[in-house]
Write a structure and sequence with these properties.
It comes from Flagellimonas oceani. The protein is an alpha+beta fold. The protein is built from four helices and 21 strands. Among the domains are: 86 residues, Beta Barrel (conserved putative lor/sdh protein from methanococcus maripaludis s2 fold); 87 residues, Beta Barrel (Elongation Factor Tu (Ef-tu), domain 3), CATH 2.40.30.170; 61 residues, Helix hairpin bin (Helix Hairpins), CATH 1.10.287. About 2% of the residues have low confidence.
Length: 354
């Protein structure tokens, strides 16, 4: 009986081993078949053609208009506002009085300086008469003269300070904001007026390194404001930054003469159109932007050649919307893969679809 059980167990184990071996061989064969099928399979892709096109050298840049000059007037000395002589929106000229401020401290300093000067002048006169009779020495006379000169200087400074209580404009322009009223008490650095000069405006824009190379100070620029689409304003470049910013762009400043009606306002959105005076266009080689792996900065594309995708290094230049300038690595009329790159490796077989 025991022998029969042992025979049955041996047969069961043998059958299990045979089944395991057959299953394992089947999986290995399937894996090899899948690998062969994968190697022989073609990836469906779409392609586009590298072309030589005529590109305009003109380009645009956007920015915001700023005042030609802007000044914030703040109090230099404490005092009380007696009169305010301008309103918001008033045009002012250089030297025009904007407000009158009374300062007890300044008045007291002026009276003290006047008294000190009168006392020094009297002493000097008395010492001068005494010197003739030998009542004072030459050294005492020199000291009296020095005291008189010092007192005179302090009096002149006190008069200047007293004159400063009449707040005067140092630039021409328009009162954009008035912060004070009669009776306002001023402390040091208290804001009083904002004055802006919009007879001219500045438009600040940024351009990239390939664009800045064609610009120079004094070049004319056509300007449009977003809120005045039917009007074109003339400007000229007054500044080109010698160093790029953190985004590798170069700030450029354009000066625009405003119309007599001051149609342009500081803060408006403007567009500058830069034109080339030497050439209006050039021939360049371009490829679709979506042909690049990941982004344009990767500088890699797949070229379709004889049913195979070849990974190719290129040198990208300027970007024109959905096209990229090709400086090196591709030739005109070559086909580049524009969809399906995620499934490709260098040398993958491809099936081009419409």
């Amino acid at each position: 009986m025991k022998k029969n059980v042992i025979y049955i167990l041996v047969i069961v184990v043998a059958l299990a081993l045979i089944a395991f071996t057959l299953m394992n061989n089947k999986q290995e064969n399937q894996t090899k078949t899948d690998i062969v099928a994968q190697k022989n399979a073609s990836v469906a892709v779409k392609v586009d053609t590298v072309k030589t096109e005529t590109s305009s050298l003109n380009f645009t840049a956007n920015g915001n208009f700023e005042p030609f000059k802007e000044l914030d007037f703040s109090a230099e000395k404490p005092g009380r506002v007696v009169r305010v002589l301008v309103e918001e929106g008033d045009h002012v000229r250089v030297g025009q009085t904007l407000a009158i401020v009374r300062s007890e401290q300044v008045s007291a300093e002026l009276h003290a300086a006047e008294a000190a000067y009168q006392n020094a002048a009297t002493n000097y006169k008395r010492f001068e008469n005494a010197l003739k009779t030998g009542g004072v020495t030459e050294q005492q006379m020199d000291q009296a003269k020095l005291t008189l000169v010092t007192a005179q200087s302090r009096l002149e400074q006190a008069k200047v300070n007293a004159g400063d209580v009449n707040i005067k404009a140092t630039i021409k322009g328009v009162v954009n904001k008035r912060y004070i009223e009669p009776g306002s008490v001023l402390g040091a650095a208290t804001p009083m007026f904002d004055i802006v000069d919009v007879s001219k405006l500045k438009l600040r824009v940024t351009v990239n390194e390939s664009q800045v190379a064609s610009l120079k100070v004094g070049d004319p620029v056509n300007i449009k404001a977003s809120v005045l689409p039917d009007r074109t304003f003339s400007g000229k470049i007054t500044f080109i930054a010698p160093k790029s910013d953190s985004s590798l762009n170069f700030p450029v400043e354009i000066e625009i003469s405003n119309n007599p009606d001051n149609a342009l306002k500081a803060g408006m959105y403007g567009t500058a159109t830069f034109t080339s005076s030497d050439r209006e266009s050039e021939k360049i080689l371009v490829a679709p932007r979506n042909a690049f792996l990941g982004s344009v900065s990767s500088n890699q594309v797949f070229v379709a050649e004889d049913g195979v995708a070849k990974l190719t290094d290129v040198t990208a230049g300027r970007i024109f919307g959905d096209k990229v300038e090709i400086l090196d690595g591709l030739d005109s009329n070559e086909l580049v893969v524009v969809t399906g790159q995620i499934n490709l490796q260098d040398g993958s077989k491809i099936d081009i679809i419409d």
